[in-house]
Amino acid sequence: MKSPQDLKILLAEDNKINQRLAVMIFKKLGVACDIASDGEEAFQLYQQRQYDLILMDMQMPVLDGLEATRKIRAFEKEAENNHHAFIVALTANEVSEKKEVCIEAGMDDFMEKPLRENLLLKLFSR
Ligand SMILES: [Mg+2]
Q: What is the DSSP string of 54-95?
């Protein structure tokens, strides 16, 4: 298993304050992370750098989290290296009713915003 420091991580989040909060937390944990400000940018970056972990905000401009996830999964299917990014939906609040849609789009897990250090550590340990 890779240690968190070796993981390629992407945060897809349009809100600048949430981005800054995430950068602070990642820095504290000693983990590097790229940032995309919308779903299309997340997809573009993914094509260049196949991330191990993607934290995907649900609501973003251009392409939202669901659409970006669908595009990434379609891309993975076409690619021949069997890479599967672990995609975690970042949700603003209780979304139990949306979970099915998220899973259908290809997301692997859910995390409630704001990002918290202990939840990230738990995620890294998987
Ligand atoms: Mg958002």
A: EEEESS-SSS-HHHHHHHHHHHHHHSSS----EEEEEESS--
